[in-house]
Amino acid sequence: MSPRVKVKTPDKSAPTVGALLMLAAALLFAVLDGLIKLLGPPFRVWDIAFYRFACGLAVLLPILGWKGNPFSGHNRRLLVVRGITGCCAFLALVAAIRLIPISTALVLFFSFPAFAAFFSPLIFKEAISRDEILFVLAALAGVAVLFDFSLHSALLGQALAVLGGSFAGLTISIIKKLRETNGSAVIYLYFCLLGAGISLPPFIANPQVPSVPVEWLMLGGIVFSALAAQLLMNQGFHYCKSWEGGLFLMAEVVFTSTLGILLLGEPVTWRFWVGGAMVLGSAVALNRGNARRISYRGVGHNSAGS
After folding, report:
1. Percent helix, percent strand, percent coil in the chain, to nearest 5
2. Sign (positive/negative) of CA torsion 149, 27, 226, 87?
3. Is residue 4 part of a domain?
4. If pLDDT is split at 50, 70 and 90, which confidence band does 24 have?
5. How many structural domains does the chain have?
6. Predicted pLDDT of residue 203
7. Which SS3 state, helix, strand or coil, does residue 200 take?
8. Quick check: 46 and 207 in contact, CB under 8 A?
9. In which domain, by residue range, is 252 found?
10. 25, part of any domain
């Protein structure tokens, strides 16, 4: 009889945990979208960005700094790169929205899971199968149906939206890599630091300060929904690949549309049902496939022969 060899059993709950964390993050990102829309045009993009990043920094610094240096993360250079690429994605999307219809800009921006599927194997050697690529493409098609995608003549706006999607895809690939050695809060802390630094000069040039309690409440909601969403997203990448997380995050567009229907009285169309079903259905199919694969790998690997 040969000795029994103990082998680490795959965590069968990982796909479910990762999916739930990402879907919760997508829901909070949708809440963030709604609050930004309700806040109104007096607050510029730079105002919202500065309040979001600076207040997030103010919240995280005491929590992470009471035991020592809050910026003592691993691979600081990559943490800084993640902050810069995240800010570039945000700024490119905002610029695109000002040049082309928001629906077209969002469809092009939500190409980021496809960019993550490209960057992750290329830079970080993260494998992706043919079936998984099909799930990503199906979800992208669902977003296009949901938003009634159409090309317009403003090529610069379209290029900026795609550029934002590429930066977002690179960003989530970097987050996946950083989660191997860093906590969720440290990754977001660096993002807030870079975001606050980039948005500070234009904010100071013409700052917009809340004048009524409702505006203060909305800004507070923006800060904490963004904080919670980012922390959940960063934690979710501990359980799933970068492009998989990106696919789950695409549920944000479904949640945003749902909030618009329930709270803002927007019409319910066939595009909402078909596009939403394609996005969420792709995510569910991917999650079930991962669960089956882990279950299969976990069978028969607790001992080594007899």
Report:
1. 75, 0, 25
2. negative
3. no
4. very high
5. 1
6. 93
7. helix
8. no
9. 19-292
10. yes
